[in-house]
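Open question from group meeting: does this chain pack into something compact, or does most of it stay loose? Before anyone orders reagents, we agreed to write out a predicted structure and look at it together. Recording both the input and the output here so the notebook holds the full record.
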Amino acid sequence: MKFGELVSELKKTALEFTVSNENAKCADVNFLTADSRKALDGTIFACVKGEHSDGHSYAVEAVKHGACALVCEKKLDIDVPQIICADVRRNMGLVAASLYGRPAEKLKMVAITGTTGKTTSTFMTKAILDYAGMKCGLLGTVCYDDGAERTEAPRTTPEADIIQYKLSKMVENGCRACVMEASSHAIVQGRLEGCYFDTVGFTNLTQDHLDYHGTMENYFEAKKLLFKKYMRNDWKVSAFADNEYGRRIFTEYENHAVSYSLADADADCSAEIMSVSAAGTDIRLKINGQIYKAVLPVIGTHNILNAMQALTLSAFFGIRTDTAVKALKVMPQIPGRLERYMIKDSGCCVIDFAHAPDGMEKLLTALRTVCSGRLIAVFGAGGDRDKAKRTLMGEIGSRLADCVILTNDNPRSENPETIIDALETGASQHAVECLRITDRRKAIYHALSMMSKGDIVAIIGKGPETYMEVNGKKIPFNDKEILSDWCAEEGREIE
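Structure tokens returned:
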């Protein structure tokens, strides 16, 4: 695309901008990035102001690497065309969407938002759409899948330039839909600019991210921006009716909403749990008055709720419920979401990403129902994040598990011992065995060495992460690899 053609496309959007140096020499533009290290020939460099650096300071470097145009908030003394607008971070999504041919308009767009359950719901929804023949891309906490390549995700919702690029690759790779986790941070910061959604899944809202939003009401209002700014056509929302904030979404957007519930048999989608085992959950579903019976290979009421949401979302696209249920029966395990490994002649190890009080309580409650022996929980808490939740997590762990081992997570700039102190304050509220083993590898090894037949070891907090963040550095670390290392050293076999 010629730079002038891009400017013409931008005039069709709501972006307010001016152009400087428009006649400066510029090759065809074909890529937009906010990372100066990725600037190559034909690149537009977006000068994003971040918390720790200002992209305007890297514009010269980006041009040296090949960038032939800029998106910036002020005219820079550089002889390349410049699109000047307010808040580059918020608006670069519109520029990228225009550059890549507005890919969101060529896809059925599904957003999943809420405190917990987003990742599982996105994987389940994608599994159903793929099974039904509607090839689906995915952007979320675990990975970015463009229909041809799956890469590890550095964050739940990427920056706007990456979102639009990935959407364009999905279109190129034959995807007909995209399901995306929409975090509250991404919504507030404008990372969704250039995206408009056909359907939304609202999982719940519980305490988390209050270090960023301040209050639960502010957190809820951040989520509501998704509905106010980023929906299109006769959009639909599937809302969890057993959660206070889900009920508010259903009430406020009643003409667009369907509800799902385990408590209300009159909801649009309800379910009755008939029995639970380590193999899965036998449920009786009622969807729009029709009864369906199924055994799903998941445990925990929260995962049944995630499945119900995926079923209602897929129904918006005309997918039959019996087809959707079949898809859920055969979908693979979701990395770091109640990921189960049976140790031969011993117990079971579960790896889960739960890193907030609500998610942790749901996880341990689910495991309690299928644990015939001891439930051993290994967990920490992230540094430089909501400190109020640490005591809560310690209390939940000691209330629901038979033994808790408090350890490191991602301490970031904090002292790990200070974080564990707060966890221990909560854990001391219940008289269960409580150990402090700061080294996470040693903590996992110790828990596994305690395990007997019928026991479950729950390794909580990091899920599929492949690193531990300490003092600004990411050190390679993966809970599943630690489990594999222990099994190899002990001569144990994972079934």
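Observations to bring back to the group:
The mean pLDDT is 95.
Residues 20 and 82 are 5 Å apart (CA to CA).
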